[in-house]
Write a structure and sequence with these properties.
198 residues; alpha+beta; five-stranded antiparallel beta sheet; 5 helices; 10 strands; 23% helix; globular
Length: 198
Amino acid sequence: MTRMELAVTADAFAHDPLAARLDDLAAIAERTGGEVTATHEPFLAQVSLRLDPALADRVPFPLPLEPNACWEEGERAALWLGPDEWLVLGPPSNGAEIAAELDSALDGLHYSVVDVSANRVAIEIGGPGRFELLSKGCTIDLHSLAWAAGMCAQTLLAKTQVLLHERADTTRLLVRPSFADYLVDWLLAATTDWSVTG
């Protein structure tokens, strides 16, 4: 008699909170004539790192040490959240690998590494009108003199807690899964009359 062993991981039970809203996100480009686009990044890897910034050189990739700064290369990014806190982003369902990589590099040090991939949903906002759209619900100054690629900020968007990650051509929104549907509804409402106000 043979025995089968089945390895079960959390990924096998992962549920995408926005799986049913992809058409709604796509509709934003139609409503705005392409001025704003919205896509969803399912299962984006997210790992919380707490570490004395004096030990940042032990991490196998650059950690931004300036407030609200980001480092990004390929599919990997590190966002500054506080003096000793970063959010490391990576390819979908790659959180455990990133955590293991950090554990190995920081072995023997005082630190915290936690896979928080299920903690936020990622929406990517693109197009030349994205700052106008985001400014309808966000108090951060998104003018190019104050906001640029390589920056991040924890703020409110339409009264919802979000993390903004400004990239080369898009703004990534990270929002709690329980507010993701509401945020999509707000994006749709904010672009309803775009041809008039956009």
